[in-house]
Amino acid sequence: MSETAARRRRALMRFWRDYRAQRAGLYGAAILAVFVLLALVTPLVTDPSGLDVTKATGPKMAPPSAQFPLGTDESGRSILLMILWGSRVSLLIGFLAALLSMVIGTVTGITAGHFRGWSSAVLMRITDWFLVLPSLVLALVLAAILGGGTSTIILAIGVTSWAATARLIRAQTLAVEARPYVERSRVLGAGHWHVMTRHVLPNVAPLVLANTTLTVAGAIVTESTLAFLGADAGQASWGSMLRGSYDWGAVTSGAWWYVLPPGLCIVAVVLAFTFCGRALEAVLNPRLRGVA
Amino acid sequence: MTAPIEIEPAAGPAAGPEDGRGARRGALGYALAKLGGALLSIGMVVVATFFLFRLIPGDPAIAYTRDVPLTPDQLTLLRRQMGLDRPLPEQFLDFVARALQGDLGTSYEYRRPVAELIGERLGPTLLLVGTGLVIAVTLGLWQGTRAAWNHGGRLDRFSTGISLTLWSVPTFWLGLLLLMVFAAGVGPIPGIFPTRGMEDVDAPDGPMYLLHVAHHLVLPCITLVAVVYAQYLVVMRSSLLDEIGQDYVTTARAKGLRDAQVRRRHAVPNALLPTVTLVFLHIGLVVQGAVTTETVYSWPGLGLLFYEAIKGPDFAVMQGTFMVLCVAVIIMNTLADVLYHVLDPRVRSA
């Protein structure tokens, strides 16, 4: 058992060495660490009562000042405070939606790749259907029908974004199952469950990890777009802040402090996730290793 | 926006188990198989729509007529009209039969048939999406070609950076920024473009009207182009990079052709094939871009109609627009598949 642990540690060290060589991936990870840290300490150092429209103390739509470093919104709330609390909502929805999408995609992909015949054909038919449909439109309809709330938004994004993952995982599953040791294991009497969880899953896991990182980026953009189009989680997120800035005419009255910070946060986090995902892909995908 | 920027070979038009079999059956059989697949997908859209919109909590009759005060008698009558008093399978068949006849229900918000509303909004959307696509495809393919031909160079790194950034920027935020800078104006710079809509109330007549609409079109069009063109750039770049390593390119060079000739006459035509079809395959992305762009600029198209229905909520309009958008995307995808098959002899003989 200790030998396994040592082997795992060696593999982890090797992974870290390879990842460190990816400059963009390191920057991405650093940016993410800062945002996650801020999101975690926000409830410890700030008072959420400032988010309440009725308890806001500042002047309305005021430009940045010493008291309000990023200015205030239409009802006198601090933009900085809303950004900090909004990061919690945006990141949480991004992570959980990507997790849901990954689970659906991986299970569908492995199942469709492992079993042949009609069940696989049906699964791929459904996958292709989801791949083709405009996912944002479907997510909007889902959110509108199921009513607001954080879990609804997570569900709407997760259910509409897994198809590309499933395609990818299925292709990888087919490649893994063609290897001789899987055939050997099957000849020795391994069942479907054993092959899928003991041989296929560990082999597709790195790909799943890289793919999920990219999915989080997509999920955060989708969340903000949904919030802007009116399907928000009922809590202030970066997307719903931008909705507010649009509704209250910050765009046309030149209140840049209400429009720029939330958008820049979205772009920074999404870019960071994309950099991390691409770096992971370069490290973990043997096909890309020589190229990158 | 949620589509990964890297195009996996598995997601390409030539992938999938059914394609191999289709190829052997010949072009007509292939087209028929694809057509069958498209009809199945459309059928799935209709079924999904029917059951999705039955998930609405509460009484559909009340949900659909939101804000319209109704007496109990009127409500009973409405339920009968909507077929809510009949069993579910019967309601479903009725729904399908109506959809086939182009009857998408009635909007109580507008007090008009949904199909009529959609027909009205189709023109502006086609104008916006059509103009945007032509510009995005031209720009994307041109820049993608240049990036791949000098890959690793400054232009290549610049293009890759631009496309990565554009991919991370939410469409609506880009729209807000453009609105703020070019429509409202920043500091001493006055706004030079209109902030909303396709035409003003005092729009001029005759040829000046076209100019008037074009003036309104500029910002929405730039936003839409920015969303989709990066994808085309990336696809064209990777597709051309694949070709550069091929033997026939080396041969073309070896027989003494100039660099531009090798590119224009040999490599680019081959690289164009997968790219052009991917343009069609990614039409879902364009639809999403249109919904957000039209919302930001209040462009009176299908996307804005859909957004207003979501905001209402006006379930009848939502349901109708949803089906129309999905079916349009499926049709474009099928066209792309068939087109690829017709254009690429390698797939045909495979």
From TrEMBL, chain A:
This protein's record includes keyword Kinase: no
Subcellular location(s) per record: Cell membrane
Record keywords, A-Z: Cell membrane, Membrane, Transmembrane, Transmembrane helix, Transport
Residue intervals of the ABC transmembrane type-1 domain: 87-277
Chain ranges passing through the membrane: 24-45, 91-115, 127-146, 152-169, 200-221, 255-280
One GO BP: transmembrane transport
Annotated Gene Ontology cellular component terms: plasma membrane
Membrane topology annotation: Multi-pass membrane protein
Database matches in Pfam families: BPD_transp_1 (PF00528), OppC_N (PF12911)
Record InterPro entries: BP-dependent_transpt_permease, MetI-like, MetI-like_sf, OppC_N
SUPFAM superfamilies for this protein: MetI-like (SSF161098)
Protein's name according to its UniProt entry: ABC transporter permease
TrEMBL record, chain B:
Keywords (A to Z) from UniProt: Cell membrane, Membrane, Transmembrane, Transmembrane helix, Transport
Residues of the ABC transmembrane type-1 domain: 122-336
CDD domains with a match to the protein in the record: TM_PBP2
InterPro entries per the UniProt record, alphabetical: BPD_transp_1_N (IPR045621), MetI-like (IPR000515), MetI-like_sf (IPR035906)
Location (main, coarse): membrane
TM regions (residue ranges): 31-56, 122-143, 164-189, 209-230, 271-291, 322-343
Gene Ontology process terms (BP): transmembrane transport
Mode of membrane association: Multi-pass membrane protein
Key word Transport present: yes
Location(s) in or outside the cell: Cell membrane
Pfam families linked: BPD_transp_1, BPD_transp_1_N
Entry's Gene Ontology cellular component terms: plasma membrane
Family label: Belongs to the binding-protein-dependent transport system permease family.
Record protein name field: ABC transporter permease
Organism for this UniProt entry: Planobispora takensis
